[in-house]
Design brief:
Number of domains: 1
Number of strands: 0
Structural class: mainly alpha
Order of helices and strands: HHHHHHH
Shape: globular
Largest sheet: none
Distance between the termini: 28 Å
Number of helices: 7
Helix content: 55-70%
Amino acid sequence: MPARDRALLTDPALTGPSPHQLDDLTHALAPDSDPGRGRPPRLAFHDQVPATVLHLHVNLAAEPLAILFGSSRTAMHRTLLKIRKPLEAHGIGIPPATTPPDALAPLQARVIALSGDPNDKIKKTC
């Protein structure tokens, strides 16, 4: 993932935790990953955690996350389920944002730019 995109996708205004805290969280969860079974993930583990944090914190659906992280919607959905398990096992909760952060506007612009479809909007899960 380009550094510009990584900075946007790990912005504390969107994720809650700082990039350093996200890195610590990724390292804490990494031993719980199971790389030995199935097809290797399309999305690197160090991107799976921020994607899940974005999903939980600002309630982003799998489709725009897949576009932002260069994955498929199905793979992103699997990733979100996979990462939630070790978060719960470690007792780590990602609180939802109380109001949508202003940082969603550049995120939506990035989704549109990457998808090439001006009708694509950031969809929130219910």
